[in-house]
Amino acid sequence: MMDRGSDSGPMHPPRSTRFAPLGETITMMRDPLAVLTRLAAECGPVSEFRAGPSRAVLVAGPDEIHEVLVTKAEEFGRAKIMTLGLLPVLGYGLVISEGDLHQRQRGLIGPLFTPRLMTRYVDTIAGHVRTHLERWPADGRFDALVAMQRMTHDIMSDLFAGESLEGNEETLAAVTRVFDWEIRLMTRPIVAPLFVPTRRNRQFLRDIAFIRGRAGDLVEARRSGATTGDDILQGLVEARDDKGDMGFDQLVDETINLWASGIETSSDAQFWTAYALSRHPEVAERARAETDRVLGGRAPTAADLADLPYCLQVFKEAMRMYSPAPAFMRQALCDTTIGGFRVGRGTVVFVAPYVMHRSPEYFARPLAFDPDRFAPGRRPPRHAYLPFGSGRHVCVGSSLALLEGQIFTAMLVSSGTLHFLDGASVRPSLQANLRPEGKVYARYEAHDVAPVGG
Description:
With 454 residues, this protein is an alpha+beta fold. It contains 16 helices and twelve strands.
């Protein structure tokens, strides 16, 4: 069904066949990724649907997504429902800030995450990966996602503040609960406001206070000179531009944004990389042959990275099939168009890299796991691969994420094999990021040869 509008103006986008008062509300609550995939298959790269009383638009084509994020970026802001959910804990950090504040913060923070600077963290990342991989065989059967979260928690804590928070379950649990609360707010039609003292809201407020208190202590110690270090937090505190440095509250906001999102996104990406390797042993064997030839059982150094291209290809392909940020929301700030279709002011726009990455229009055999898509000299179609977003809000930590993913992939296949138990039942689900639906258990079988860090 298509509403052509007036003869003189652009058409409305093609509509969902369920364009009724409740529209896709119930099905979106149950399985949003399935709904978005179906809409794109039925209607094309731009489609309109109802989520309760409101109209929304799905954008799932490379040119149309580029239009929203880059060429018409000034016409689309972050969706209010998203900022309301994230603001209590993330404040006005990079994840949700807009306009001049966002531009200034990117100018201060971006230089801390250049590819050249990230290579100095290779040994630290490899050291933490080695510690966790050596522990996994003794753990027997373990929750694979939780294991990845603990590993990335230790990595980010060390890179960010120069201290290991290994074993600090309270911090990790608080971060996880906060992101779960936020996705619940954004995916449920009715959620009790924070001033209503439900059990979940009380826990959320305690978690916010704990996280912000922890971040505030770290920031104050650096600002006062009580502690110092060669890490990301020190770089934040020392960052200056023509307006000076960041104030205390902004530093706390950015500390939480970079630290928490780094844990969440990296752990999810590494979970799906490990899962894909377990499902495709021929890919794992090829990656293992590369690491055996280059590393011979030792941990990688910065000098080794150029000689481990296939391990990086594996990680990139995992992010194509299992995008950590599979869909995110923008909101039209004015009457505008996307792909030539009319979009009214206030319309929530779902940008869905997950759907685009799995479309046969842009990727041959899209459901096949094929790291050679990213072989040297080969590139995905223009604008069709967006694991880190695009435009003014592109992920500032993309270089760190790629570095961490390459190291993790190389060391995982070099030192052993991760077996997912009942792996066929693993189902991607849109939660805080793309995560497995329910708990997924695994066991790690260490190799007798080529030990990690030998």
